[in-house]
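ARCHIVE CARD
Drawer: 12
Card no.: 0347
Subject: one protein chain, sequence and derived structure
Cross-reference: see card 0346
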Amino acid sequence: MKVLILGGRLQGVELAYLAAKAGWQTTVVDRDPLAPASGLCDRFTVLDLNDHASLLVLMREVDFVVPAIEDKPLLDRIEACAQTVGVRFAYDREAYLLSSSKIHSDGLFALLGIPAPRPWPQCGFPLIVKPSGASGSKGVACLENAVDFEQWQQCTPQHHQWVKQEFLHGPSYSIEVIGAKGTYRSFALTELEMDSGSDCKRVLAPVDLPPALEAALRGTALTLAETLRLEGIMDVEVILHQEQLKVLEIDARFPSQTPTAVYHSTGINLLETLCTGSKACAHPTGRGVVFEHLRITGNSMEICGEHIMAKAGPLRLQQEFFGADEALTNYQPGKREWVATLICTGNTLEQARDKRERAVERIRRECGLGRYLDPEPVLPLPVFSPAMAA
């Protein structure tokens, strides 16, 4: 199988990693010559994706094209290129358009009666505000009172187009669904841990949820996929608040971080399933996985959100990295500033955690690091200040 991956940042890293695990030949395209995924593929091409003539040439050489970008007009133009060539393109336009708008997806949750955070003004403070079309935690803030709300409105152009909903506190979970020709399958649940900036810093599997809650989450994910008539992959992120799972967001695109954790926990490669429709068992008993990002700066080690990997330059896959099973990293011996995504596994999550602790301690010892930070948000989102809008 020859796969063309369009975009070499975080989603591109995920796709290149999983394609290599499937034994496939990969070409990654990005206009940045130092894109992180450039070190993880068989062939890397520096190219602006608006160069459709060059893109058509590349598409004619592969069996499958997978986007790792979030530019809707560009995705539509690339889809037209794929149709011209007759190559499969992993993009469900209608599902993506709905899921990329938090306002529209929240409307779908309400229509289907799916538990979700209550919208303003049906809820009180603290209040979460987030741009409808942004991904991840970009632009998201917490408004603690009416004064914050007034300041935020004054500082935020077109604030009426933003999502405003109640603040919820609790553990977060994610689940992927793949749809093809009216058949929908859900996969292993993962738990998400956030850093002080509300970016995901750690993914854990398997998840210890009561069977009734797990069944409810799988049912919700499948209902959403069926309603959207999903042709492709979608992930659903939820929060457990007062013993009820509430849907925070959906994304009808190939996610980052969680598919690698699913792969190491269950052996199921979501990219392979997406491309070939492989029928691997969807819910085997999972092995333990701790997947996390760390940054070394001088004398310090800090566990950080995924954003630190986006500007790290070309990453390499290293086996047995300081005792971790694997790492995606720009580390070189003697280097004083570097990052790594550590992957530690075990027969159970407790064993994976133990391996992770030993690996972190070994890095600290062998690299002479005195300071260790693993920050967690007091609130799951930063409190708003006018400086944030500047």
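Annotation on reverse: The first strand starts at residue 2 and ends at 6. The radius of gyration is 21 Å.
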